[in-house]
Each structure stands twice: as structure tokens, then as C-alpha cells.
Design a protein that fits this description.
The strands form two sheets. Strands 2, 4, 5, 6, 9, 10 and 11 form a seven-stranded mixed beta sheet that branches. This protein has a four-stranded antiparallel beta sheet with strand order 1-3-8-7, with no helix packed on it. The protein is mainly beta and 116 residues long. It is built from no helices and eleven strands.
Amino acid sequence: QVHLVESGGGLVQAGGSLRLSCAASGRMLSNYVMGWFRQAPGKEREFVAVITWSGTSISYADSVKGRFTISRDNVKSTVYLQMNSLKPEDTAVYYCNAYYRSNEYWGQGTQVTVSS
């Protein structure tokens, strides 16, 4: 069992920045691929970024490349999403995800609202 708690969301003007955090707890965390997804009102949940606990593999959605950076602190068991140059279309609930084989866990989500 893995427990994920997101924080750091809020309201920001277009062009601003936010940093989301995902604190993870549980067994065998080093086996899990950690990711961020988001879901805007009326839309399906979509992939944002993913990182392995070793940090050797990172991937981003095209829509956030060059603006968002995913990272992790293994000592704190925390994954971050640094979001720069935010746009109104980045407005969504952002969810942390942990995945390993057939095991998948989600956090409760944190709201990010970008005003124009």
C-alpha cells in the first residue's frame, strides 16, 4: 500500500509559477514510477510528467515541455512538479500517481487555477 498526499496548488496569474509536492509513504517506494496527471473540468484526466525513483528516466507531455520540471527527493520520499510560465489552460486538479506492475495509487489531488 502506498499513500500519496499532494500540496502546493493555488491561484496564480498567467506567467506565474507554482511548485507542487507529493509526499509518498509505504513499502518498496523505490520500485514505483511516480507521475503527475491533471484533470480539467469536463475533460478526461491526462498525463503531465513521470519520473522513476532513480531519476534515470523522465518524460513530459508535449503541452508542458520546457515549462514544467519533475523531480524527486528520495530522502523525503517526495516528488515535485515545478510549473513555470503557467497558462490558463493549465488550470486543473493535479494528481500524483504511483505505479508498479499491477499496483497503482492516486493522491486526492490539488487544485491549480491560472487566471488570465
